[in-house]
């Protein structure tokens, strides 16, 4: 399936020019969508608040290549390459924190838009061009390798549509290609169905298994997240494999070897899609003025397989008697109706953001030690 999609992309789409800096959402050495405020308000169980300041790495030794999810509000089925607030916002929420450990490269690409997604969800025929989106991502990665990589290790990161782009990039540019695999620290296609052969750590990607521990390299970390109290329904779009004999990958970045662990969550103080509706983090409605909030001990996660679904099960540990909120945002909503088949899709990455960043750094250190010239 991935190979066919890549062939289609090569045949149909002409890529954007990534020698043009305007086609990059984030690049090192400039002020852009990733050099934004990232401080987090930490709210302890007793309601005490402190501010955790964000500190970027001064001389990072590896790179992160990030592909953003479906966020474009352009009034077309494929987006243009103009950076809008939606792309800036998602870079802040999902990509910029990786600057504490790596150089972040994030291209603009002519993605399938929210308009196209909504049409597809309501059963309308959609002619959005996935090939156009992928060819842009492929061209951007090629430009990065040619101009910037210089033999450095790289972590590939993507969410939702971005995860699909990362999987296509892995299939076309890395899988079965030893020279390229030497540069791959790991891949993090989050919030998409990465299908594996049942009982195996590989699937369509024959030479790229899921990561089994925090120092595995050349492997992938993938999961979709659902509330423990709202597991994937029978017809869920996520967590259930489309093909018989397959399962959806789940690697908990806080515990790649398995088991339930507290998650180092950095929750955005406005929603992923950029609405400005206030989220109440304390029962007294005291506002949070930083871009992120942390609730130590509130959120834990475990990869589970239940009723044919594989997912990161998210458990909240609220105390009705303490001053903190007893719930979090992140569900996909239509008005007051929750779309249970999407799980906690809007905060897939944020639920374990601190763990993802830490894992990337650990894997990079292991890659540097074990690197084969």
UniProtKB/TrEMBL annotation:
**Top-level division of the source organism's lineage:** Bacteria
Signal sequence extent? 1-15
Q: Which UniProt keywords apply?
A: Signal
Q: Does the record's keyword annotation contain Signal?
A: yes
Q: Which InterPro entries match?
A: AB_hydrolase_fold, DUF3089
State the name under which the record lists this protein.
Answer: DUF3089 domain-containing protein
Source organism (scientific name):
Sphingomonas tagetis
